[in-house]
Every structure is written in structure tokens, then in C-alpha cells.
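Appendix B. One record, verbatim.
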Amino acid sequence: MKRIKYIALSLLTLGMVACENELVEDLRDRNNLDSEPLPELTAGSADFSNYVSIGASFTAGFTDSALFVASQENSFPNIMASKFANVGGGTFTQPLMNDNFGGLLLGGNPVISPVTGERLFEERLVFGGAGPVALQSVNPTAMSTTDFALNNPTGPFNNLGIPGAKSFHLLAPGYGNLANFPAAANPYAIRVTGNAPNASILELAIAQNPTFFTISEVGGNDVLGYALSGGDGTDPITDSATFDASLNALVAGLTANGAKGVIGNLPNITSLSHFTTVPHNPVPLDAATAGFLNSASAYGAYNAGVAQALAGLVQFGQITQEMADAELAKRTITFSAGEGNAVVIMDENLIDLTGLNPALVSMRQATSEDLIVLPASSFIGTEAVPGNPQTVNGVAIPLADKWVLTPEEQQEIADATAAYNATISSVASSNGLALVDLNSILEQASSTGIMFGDYNMNTDLVFGGLVSLDGVHLTARGYALMANSFLQAIDTTFGSNFEASGNLAEAGDFPTNYSPTLQ
């Protein structure tokens, strides 16, 4: 009898749910009567049946300093492909990682940098309560199982986003050949080349005979490597001629059989939170420490030496007094008790005084115009000699070039970005491609924020919603916003109606962070 009661109760519950669903549908029908129905989705002059995306980390779905299954599923090309599927789009295949931990192995072992001794491909970052932390610090069982020597997926792949690739890398034969690693191959490229290890990324794309394509953030890594290294010269900016030739070759190859496409220009990367989060003046000091730093035993002697050297240069007519005064103002280093002391940095743009006095190295205190890179947050304040407070990095010992982007270095990045974008605009126009102004979108996000659904997205680290925990790549919601920007550009250029027909991504369907427990 109890079983009969349970069955009856279940049937009653189902009946209530059915009635509720009918009521909801009835309300929807009534609401639809009060509003104009949306038009049918149309492709315009575009053919989305075979869509291929080519680019770098944004195309791949890189987020939180890693690539992993969930991030790939929320990549902007995959989001776009889901909308293309509603108007004749075909299957969109991605080179999915093996797990949601991120990171890469080589022959069962982590890849170690011969320079720093650190892992090159770390597991992803997660929110640790106060800021980004390594996944393993909160989930020790999280271990990468993706091995680019042992378990690569089988292609061909529609998503050919290669994290770390520069513009010319996408044309390079052997960039995905394991035999060329680490000198001239990229693990993410190795994972997509399959049985054609010497094929370029462009050749892999052309071989699929796409009907539609996206090109995104090509050129981003050409300046990003320089920016991430603080402009220290270890990763120089790609010259404009090389970039121009690479982009033209990519577009020529992809359009050779009549495919249409859309291309995104490059944002000003120094607006990203990787470069705007760490303040130039984060140092608190007590009176005794500030007094010591200002004394002749520390920076007092340096200040006096700089003043003397500059006076000598003026006396011998090598610089003007005005130049000397400006240089001295830049290079005078002083500290005070309390908060807000600026860090000391190296700056190769200062006048070289070491020929007069080897102790007068080119250093100064940072200003609000300098950008301190995000990793410096865990370095500033550490002691070069443990237990010796007179060796504090960023205070007693100046920050090396790799930790800071000076205004001059920022200008180099801005100039290269502007040149790349001029080429992108010209190539898009001459080849009938849709153009997405990602530069303006990021500029708006970094100044006033940009509305996406009910959310105001900005570039603040952790809580801005747009930029992921690594300070460079986007969140899933950020990639959805990017996908919509591409879809809207396609509407404008090819006469489709993704926006008008209600076929854009919804902000609330995409997260801004991933749980540490994600497997």
C-alpha cells in the first residue's frame, strides 16, 4: 500500500509540474502577443557550413593561465560555432585537453625551464580568497594528464588557436613537430598537427577548405612577449614588415577558394590588469627604515653622486642645465615613514653616468606612469639575502627591467600595435572581411566598463568580470562578449541577423571563474 501511495504522490507531482509548465507556456504566449516576434535567423551572403578559426591563445580559449576542457568549450570560436549551427553551420572540432587542470606534460614529466628551473606549463590559477593562487595550492590532487608526446588528439581541428604563437609562427613549417621542441616548436601546435607534423597552422586550415573563417589576436603575441618581459629585450617586438607579410599570407591562403571571414584588430594590451594591478608605490616603511634608506650609507650617497656627475656634464657642455635639473629630479631617491613609498627601478633611458662613477647605475623611483607587471606583486618586498632587511627587493635593491614597463617601452608597444592595426584594417577592407574593433572594446572596458546583459564588465583583476586571473586572457563571459562582437560584425558585413534574431550569447550563461574542484 505504501508503494501505491508513493506512486500516486509521484503522479500528482507530475501533474502539478505539467500544469505549471502549461501555465508558463501560456504566459509566454501572451507575452509574445504583446511584443513583435523575432525574425528568422539568416546567414546573409555567408556560408557557415565549414568554419575554421585561426589565431593564438584567445582563439584557443586560454584563461586563468591555462588551457583546459571547460575553457576550450567556452572559447569564443566555439560559442560562435554554436550559433552558426542554427543556420547551416557544421561540426566544430577542438583539440580538447585531457582534463580541467591545465598544464602540459612531456613524456610523463613536467616541462622545466632551463633558465629559471620552473615549470613552463603550470596548472591553472584559481581564486584563493584574496587573489589568484595556483590550483594545486588549494587542490593538491590536481595533476595534468595532457601529454603532448604521448596522448595528442586526432584532427583535423576547426579550432586552430595556438597559445603563444606569433604572427609568423602560423606560417612556419615544423612549428608543430615534436622533434623541433623546444627550439622551434610549440606544444599546443604539436597537439594539432597529427600525422602531418611539418604542416604549418595555415596549411592545416587550408586543407579543410573552409567556407568561413575567423582570424583573431594575430599579432597579439608579437607585442605581448615584449610586454610580459618588461621590455627587457629578451622577447623583442616583431617588426611591422614581418607582421604585414604574415597577415597577408594568412588572408590570401584562407580566401583563395572564396571563403568569407572576419578579423579582429589588437587591443592596447597595457590596459589589461596584468599591467595595471600592482601600484608603483606599494611600500610601507617605519621611520627608522626610511631614515636609513635616506642616509649617506644608502641612497643619500647615490643622490649626491648623481648631482655631482650631472654638474660635471653641464660644466663640460655635454648637457644643458635644464637637462641636468630634469635628470636629477627623476633620479633623486627618497623615502618617508608611512604608506605609499614608490619602488626603485632600473631605467635604461636615463643618462648613463657609470663612466663617471660605476656606482651611479641608471635607477630611479617609479612614478604613476610606470607599469609594474603582475608577477612583481610576489617579488616586491622579498629579501635578496634572507634575514637581511637591507636587501629588500624594490627598496634597497632596484627592480630589474623585466618587472617594469617604462613610458618609453609602453610607447614602443603602442606604436607597434597601431601599425599592426593599420595593416589589419587595410587587409580587411581590401579582402571584403568583416572587422571587429577589439581595441575600442578594451578601451571602453578599461575606462568606464562595458555592459553585457546585466553586468558591467571592466578590466579589474578578479572582480572585473572581463579579464581572467592571469591578468591577460579573458574569462568565459569575456569570450562570450568577444563572440558577440564578431557576430555583430558579421551581421554588418554579410547581411546575417544574429543580433536581430536573438542569436547572440547571453552573459549569464557564462562564468567569470572556475571552481578549484573542477575535474
